[in-house]
Amino acid sequence: QVQLVESGGGLVQPGGSLRLTCATSGFTARDYGMSWYRQAPGKKRDYVALITSTGSSTNYAEPVKGRFTISRDNAKNTVYLQMNNLKPEDTAVYYCNVVILGRGIFWGQGTQVTVSS
After folding, report:
1. Could you report how far apart the first and last alpha carbons of the chain are, in Å?
2. Sign of torsion, CA 44 32 28 112?
3. pLDDT at 50
4. Bridge-partner residues for 18, per DSSP?
């Protein structure tokens, strides 16, 4: 079955960096675009970034442009989110996402990112 497993979250001070990892299995990841979303306490889940299947194109939500970078290693079936210059408003649970036509929409369990001094 499709599995997405996020890791790399934690507590970091404002201005710090973290790299999130999404390990995938159960499908041919290199055939699909992949996305990151986040959900802060009491708020809806918001889109963060997307990368195409080959990694040739990316897209970012306005609040993270210039600070976050999405990338992938198709040999390792893994997607990354490098987060720099983190702000308290980046505090959220971060989720990896894939939409597979004919199979459904899949989410990982999430990884907590807390930005606080």
Report:
1. 40
2. negative
3. 98
4. 83
Distance between CA atoms of 11 and 4, rounded to whole angstroms?
Answer: 22
With left for phi above 0 and alpha for psi between -120 and 50, is residue 44 left, alpha or beta? beta
| Three-class SS state of 54 | coil
Report pLDDT digits (tens) over 54-112: 999 999 999 999 999 999 999 999 999 999 999 999 999 999 999 999 889 999 999 99
Tokens of 91: 């505090």
pLDDT at 38: 98
- Residue 97: Cβ-neighbour burial (10 angstroms; 0-12, 13-18, 19+): buried
Give the residue among 69, 86, 92 at the shortest CA–CA distance from 15: 86
